[in-house]
Structures are given as structure tokens and as C-alpha cells.
Design goal:
single chain; globular; about 450 residues; alpha/beta; binds adenosine-5'-diphosphate; binds magnesium ion
Length: about 450
Amino acid sequence: MTLLEQWDAVCTLLEESLGENVLNRWLKKIEPHEADACSAVLFVPTRFINEWIQKNYADDILSAWQTVNPDMSSLEFKVAPVRLKQEAAVKEEPFPQSENGPMRNLSPANETAGTDLSDTNEVSTNLDPRYTFDNFVVGKPNEFAYAAALRVAEMKEISFNPLYLHGGVGLGKTHLMQAIAWRIKELSPERKVLYLSAEKFMYQFVKALRYDNTVSFRDMFRSVDVLMIDDVQFICGKKATQEEFFHTFNSLVDQGKQIILTADSSPVDLKGIEDRLKTRMGYGLVVDIYPTTYELRLGILQSKAQMMGAEVPETVIDFLAHHISTNVRELEGALRRVVAHSQLIGLPITLESTQDILKDLLGACERKVTIEEIQKKVAEHYNLKVADLKSAKKERKIARPRQVAMYLSKVLTTKSLPEIGLKFDRDHTTVIHAIKTIEDLLKTDANLNEDINILKRTLEN
Ligand code: ADP
Ligand code: MG
């Protein structure tokens, strides 16, 4: 595929995602100059256009390019006056083709073969072999989704169409969907299962439009027995793709073929999707996957540790389940880092080494406490009102808790002394005094120590 062909495909994708206006006003001003497998140089006529494009569209351009060529990793924009551009003949060298991935599908040689639906029967090509039902740990937050997925996978007659799984990032939507594909493949290998991301669907569609191939595109998508589209939210705001998807959807449902969808939110909550499509998508069974609970995280970590063949102490599993986010992908990533580290240096995994290795991650996940929360909790703890803490009242039963709240604000937040003072209607010298007082008292006063510990614990939760 030549540079110009690639650029053309990138523009078509960007037209769909950013609109015709942006394409004509800005992107058409760009001229691809040269590229290798993973980087490209683009010419832009003026400094202003260059800045504007870099500021507003560089990320979109790169990600569209990565859809066309997954290896593309950097783009360089250069201001090149027209004269210069004419001299620099656009290079037409063919690109090194990657073994698989979308580039192959775009190559003109494949054009006559229709879309790359040729690999439809071979579902396993884009399925992850680890994403099976056996490897899926079931708990309260996902048991319903699991049951629904299993049922769709094991029933020949259609009981709900579509099955629509939704939930936040890293909660197992893709895993469950692919597990269905694997199970169907195992139980009824004659059924044609097609799994792809909504992004890829759009890409295929745009490509079919470009090559005037929509007929074979439609034939292909409408001839499968089970269609699985992952991350449907991707087509939000993409009109033409939605339209095509709507027709594909209807055609398959009419033929009694199973459709399975995933997205980051329920059909009604998807923004930028036409109402008629939303209605259709919510027509079958809509199932939530909820954020993981501590118990589920424990189960997942135990299972993953076993799969990695690693000896991970209970305390470490417990620590990870408590401190890493609800996102299973992050949980798994953290565990993998800890295991890899211990294997590398040949020492057993301990709580200390875990905390050390995950320092950066733990910092980011830690909840940020605000001064308002501190005031609220302190007031509750001492049976006061937040207004008392901010008031001018001087009696000990109010002044002491006020000092405690100021002290905790300093210890638990990154706010400056004047900022803290402001929240209590005081100046920073009062805050300094409060901190000093509490620090001194803590050396001797057991009750105060206990109060502070309790407050810290509730606040850091
Ligand atoms: P999503 O598609 O919802 O963003 P994924 O399906 O990609 O999430 O899951 C992210 C990672 O977490 C994958 O490696 C997946 O195997 C793993 N995972 C998620 N939920 C579970 C679970 N219940 N049991 C085992 N692994 C899980
Ligand atoms: Mg996913």
C-alpha cells in the first residue's frame, strides 16, 4: 500500500469521525511526504495551519493512521512552502506489509477478493485463547452477565436478541464475549461466528465505500450466524456507520441470527446514537457488569496467580485486592509486575517488595481527601457542626476539634497553610499554631492519639 493510499484511507476515517468540514478546512491542506513502516512526515503549508493541526487533530490523525497501519507510531509535521513541496516528489514506494492486521486488507491486491471477510470462518484468528469461560472468575458483580453469556453460547435457539453487555473499562466484557465465541466454536463448529470491534466494523465499512465494495460488505456481514460487535460506543456520532450497522442489525435479527454487543454504557445512555438504533439494541437482554468487589478481586487474583504459576502470599493478594482499582486489567497488570519482578531477581514476593514495585500505581489510585471531607468527618466525630469549626467560638470543646481538623488537613492533603486557613476563615499563623499544638499533645495524650487514628482511617477509606 503506497503512502498516498494510506493517507487516503486515513482521511476517509477522519471524515467519518471529525466531519467533512474539518476534512476540507484543515486535513486536505496536509500533504504526506514520506513514511516508513512506523513513522511518517507530513507537509503543511503554513505555520499557523501547522500549529492548529498539531494542537487539535494530531492525536486523531495518529489514531486513524494506526487503524490503517497498526505499526504507525509517530508523525512529524513540517511546514513546507508550496515551492518546496513541488520539488519534493511524493514517494510512492510500497509499504512494508505487516503479516496480518488491517494493512493487508487495504492492499489493492485484495480488492477483488472483496472485504477481508474471507477470514470470517476462522474466528479464532482474532480471539484471545485465554478469554474462555473456564478462565472467568464469577462473583456477585458479574454473575448475571456470566449466566446470560453462557446461555447464549449453549442454546441453539435464540432466547434474547441481542445480548447487550455493558460496564466500565476492564470489567470483563471482551473476555465474556470471546468466551461465547469459543464455546460456540466448540459446540457447533458449523456456525459462522464473526467477532470484531465496532472500530473495525467502521473501518471495513469505510473501506468498502472507498472501493465500491458495499455489496460484498453487506453479503458478508449478513451471512454470519452470530455477529459480535465489541465496544459499540465507538460508533457514537458516526452517522454513516450507524446507518449501515442498523441495517446489518435488522437483517440479521430478521433472519433469526444471534447478535451480541458490548459497550461502556446501557443503550439509553449512549450519546450520539440514533434513537431507533438505541431502541433496537435494548430490545433483547441488557446486562450490567458491575465494578468488582473486594471478594471478586481476591478470587481473580488467586486464579491469575495460579495461572502464572507463582507463589503469592495471602497478605500480598489481600493488599492488592484492597489497594488496586476495581478495573481487572489494572489488577492483573499489578500482579504481573510483582510476579515478574520476583522471578527476575529470584527472591520471593513479600508485602514490602510489592509496595515498593507498585509505588507509582498506588500513589495514583489513592483517594484524594479534601478539606471539606475532613471538616465533615471531624465535626461528626466530635458531635459538632461544620459551621462550628469555622466559627469564632473559642471554648475548648470546639477549639480543639478545629485544631484537629487543621492538623489533618495538613497531613492528608497537599494544600498550603494559607489555603487551609481560608477554609476555616483563619489566617495561616493560626493554622501553624494549631498544627504545633496537636503535634505536642500527641506525644502525651492517648485519647487524642486514638481520635486522630480513627479519623485518619475513616478519611483514607
Ligand atoms: P473490558 O472489555 O470490559 O474492558 P476485558 O474483558 O478486556 O475488559 O478484561 C480485562 C482483563 O481482565 C482481561 O485480561 C480479562 O481476562 C480480565 N478479567 C476481567 N474480568 C475477569 C474475571 N471475572 N475473571 C477473570 N479475568 C477477568
Ligand atoms: Mg473490551
